[in-house]
Amino acid sequence: MLLTKNKKNQASKVSGNRILINVTVVGSAGPIRFVVNEGEVVADVIDTALKLYAREGRLPVLGSNYNEFVLYCPVAGTEALNTWETIGSVGVRNFMLCKKPKPQKVVNDDDGKPVAVGVTRKGYGSWRAWFNKSINLKVSSH
Q: DSSP E strands: which ranges in the chain?
């Protein structure tokens, strides 16, 4: 029995320390918790998080391509973590998983002003009109 304990301790030293991390997916209810090695790269952690997210049947459905996502550390700053950085080098255990922003195409109109392509506006109102309408419905007269 003593021999098996020594083998387990040696195996854990080789693979590195294991840590429990929380990955909060933007738009989902609650974080995903799982154990990873400190030496794992961020890309592997994103891949594991997406697999666990899909296995649990959470919504919204995200997909399985880890190249479409970035991992943020809310404590360390607003920069996304590098995909080849080790997860243990950050020093924290709480992360946020977000989809990568899609680049918008910019073209110039006739006046030479830049206009973003793909950004459409609903023809029947803006958010201010909706907000004012909802306020007016809730105000009651005495």
A: 18-25, 32-37, 69-72, 94-99, 105-108, 114-117
Q: Cα separation of 99 and 30, whole Å?
A: 17
Could you give the angle at the alpha carbon of 136 between the alpha carbons of 132 and 142, nearest 5°? 155
Overall pTM surpassing 0.90 (yes/no) = no
CA dist., res. 53 & res. 66, Å (int): 12
pLDDT tens figures, 117-140: 555 544 455 666 666 666 665 555
Q: Are 84 and 45 spatial neighbours (Cβ–Cβ below 8 Å)?
A: no
**Of 37, 39, 3, whose CA–CA distance to 21 is shortest?**
37
Distance of CA 125 to the CA centre of its chain: 31
pLDDT tens sequence across 90-99: 889 999 999 9
The count of other CB atoms within 10 Å of the CB of residue 20 is 9
Q: How far apart are CA 22 and CA 72, in angstroms?
A: 12
